[in-house]
Amino acid sequence: MSTTTPARVARLDSILEGRRKQIGFRLGVGLCLIVFYQQLLGLQPTLYWASLYAALQLIELQVFARDKTRERISTRAGYTFALALIFANTLVFGSLAVLWPFKTGSWGVANGAFLIAGAMLNTVLTTQESKAVFRASVLPLVVYCAILPFVAYAVGCKPDLALGLAIGGAMLCATSLKLWNGAHKTYQAEQAARADAERRRAEAESAVAAKSAFVAMVSHELRTPISAILAGSAELERVSDGVGRSHARLISDAGSMMRTLLNDLLDLAKLDAGRMAVESLSYDFRALIADQLRFWRAEAKKQGVALRLSGAAHAPRWVQGDPTRLRQVLNNLLSNALKFTDQGSVTVGLSVSPMDDGRLSLRIDVADTGAGMTAEQVDRLFKPFEQADASIARTHGGTGLGLVISRQLARMMDGDITVTSTPGQGSCFTVTVVVAAAAPAAIPQAAGTAGSMTAGKPMTVLVVDDHEINRRAMSLMLEPLSAEVVLAASGSEGLSLLAARPFDVVLMDVHMPYMSGQEATMRLRLAVGPNRRTPVIAVTGATEESDIQACFAAGMNDWVAKPIDAGQLYNALGRQLEGGEADTAAA
Question: Is the pTM of this model over 0.70?
Answer without folding.
Answer: no
